[in-house]
Amino acid sequence: MLPCFAPAGTAARPVTVVAASAYGTWLESTDPRTRAWLEESGFKAKGGAVALLPDEHGKVARALLVASEPAEPWDAAALQAALPAGVWALADGANALPPHHAVLGWALAAYRFTRYRADENARPQLILPTGAGVERAMVLAEATWQARDLVNTPASDLGPAELAAAVEAVAHRHDAACKVIVGDALLDANYPAIHAVGRASARPPRLIDLTWGDPTAPKLTLVGKGVCFDTGGLDIKPSSNMLLMKKDMGGAALMLALAQCVMALELRVRLRLLIPAVENSVGGAAFRPGDVITMRSGTTVEITNTDAEGRLILADAIAEADGEEPSLLLDAATLTGAARVAVGPELPALFTPDDALAEAILRQGEAAFEPLWRLPLHAPYLTYLKSQVADIANASSKTFAGAVTAALFLKEFVKRTKLWAHLDIFAWNDDSRPGRPRGGEATALRALLGLVEERFGRPR
């Protein structure tokens, strides 16, 4: 159990939960002192509003939470941020805030990154509610905490080896198999692009490969970009653009979190997680503009920009995944600044050639309070990746549609799989909102878990 929760039976102060539309009736029925306190303080009964209610001695004795309609996890997140330290319990006879929303929102708001600086402030705890969906909410919260920790950890302490160790720890916890191909062994195993991108770093590149589940179940394959730091390579980034490049493995963190949820909930799938983990460094061994790489698939790629490295390592991993023709192939990456220009930091950009799959992902995003936005795989833009010396270039010759051309590049390596989707994510909360503190984020985790559950069935 996460430390923001307390077990049942612990002495606690109550939080009365009232739906926004029922607030007037509740106010009339409550005691005159509480009514006067709320009216005199100018309390506004809108979703997520919290009031601390005193006893006759002026001490905080209880609290009021107004739930949105429909209720959402961010109501509980706002509550967590507003309450003083101590143990609290929800008093919600009308089920205005379903337990799974309460657990998820509270836990996401309680997250703190404490690896380098202790959180010395006393924090409130919530008596863990019971009810439908609570176990799933806890699984999601724990996976989100881990993903946030990974993204927030700087490259000084999270390189390819440490990312592999994090995957191995999750594999061990769920009795999954995990193998790692490291350094020059990538060439022997025919992963030339992963090797080329990572070879200049003192920390060798690797491909992390986790497998789990019933061999007879439908195959779900997840691919996550694991660039633990991105200098841009020889096409080096300006220093200001490097400040957040510790988060360039956010796609890997997201897909590891999704894999962790799939295994913890024992979903009916045969799971494979592939994470190409590299550091894109400047050095004598760095790959160069003008180089041509023969990829795992046999496609030749001219390097026109060494800062377009994520799609290269993903392409090798996607080619490996595609060879098995999984029932569903999902990849996620902090791939392009163009996606952020197009849809901003809060909306993951979704690409898929399948309309029904797109509709399902978008619907799950809305249901999980985690909207995505579909962008087109506009085939004519593939001409922007034309090369005079190779099958394709790794970066566009134009400044237009950068997220689209990156997705089109990846699509070239999906030959056999019928259902594939690519997410171009930010993996970072640029501003703090209830339950979404500034920093690393498992962007689209809830939406993707809902998709997997819908497509392959609930826990066995």
From TrEMBL:
<keyword id="KW-0464">Manganese</keyword>
<dbReference type="InterPro" id="IPR048816">
    <property type="entry name" value="Peptidase_M17_N_1"/>
</dbReference>
<dbReference type="Pfam" id="PF21337">
    <property type="entry name" value="Peptidase_M17_N_1"/>
</dbReference>
<dbReference type="GO" id="GO:0004177">
    <property type="term" value="F:aminopeptidase activity"/>
</dbReference>
<protein>
    <submittedName>
        <fullName>Leucyl aminopeptidase family protein</fullName>
    </submittedName>
</protein>
<comment type="similarity">
    <text>Belongs to the peptidase M17 family.</text>
</comment>
<dbReference type="Pfam" id="PF00883">
    <property type="entry name" value="Peptidase_M17"/>
</dbReference>
<dbReference type="InterPro" id="IPR011356">
    <property type="entry name" value="Leucine_aapep/pepB"/>
</dbReference>
<dbReference type="InterPro" id="IPR000819">
    <property type="entry name" value="Peptidase_M17_C"/>
</dbReference>
<dbReference type="InterPro" id="IPR043472">
    <property type="entry name" value="Macro_dom-like"/>
</dbReference>
<keyword id="KW-0378">Hydrolase</keyword>
<keyword id="KW-0031">Aminopeptidase</keyword>
<feature type="domain" description="Cytosol aminopeptidase">
    <location>
        <begin position="305"/>
        <end position="312"/>
    </location>
</feature>
<keyword id="KW-0645">Protease</keyword>
